[in-house]
Please model this.
Amino acid sequence: MLKIPPIRIEYPDWVAPLVEWERCYTSDEEKMRLAIELSRANVVHRTGGPFGAAIFEMETGKLLAVGMNSVVRLNNCTLHGEMVAFMMAQARLGCFTLRSESGPAYELVTSCEPCAMCLGATLWSGVQRVVCGAHRDDARRMDFDEGPVFPESHAYLEARGIEMVHGVLRAEANAVLELYRSGEGIIYNG
Model:
């Protein structure tokens, strides 16, 4: 019988000293700085690609989960920063959705606009708002293939009640993409 090893998703060691779990983040810029710092640390520590994400309670700014690209480190093409953040948030809450009639509303803050896979997961994740740093064209200039994402993709999410905010600290987020390229980071598309 074929034995398949268990799938384990754990944060790199550098996450614990970097992330302030009890802090409340009061602005989109503060939240984005965390997502960008996650992406930068991932590049500097050579633990993954230049993408970071975090999930916050919308009303309080309380941090629920973080994610960083872990595709190469954990040998799994689905472990983009947003996907790791969704998985960790849902594991922390013990629920398959972040949307609740009685609980807080959540938002995803991501250092770069989500790829096609992550946009699909965003729809089903239960977040009610997405804040993006770098533009998908910034990632494409680094040869990351973001898949079939169209203006209609974002319009669809908005029609489903998910607010989309673009370009928050775009230059700072793009600088991490450039850092990754200058360090000859792996472009792991297919």
Observations:
- Residues 28-44 form the longest helix (17 residues).
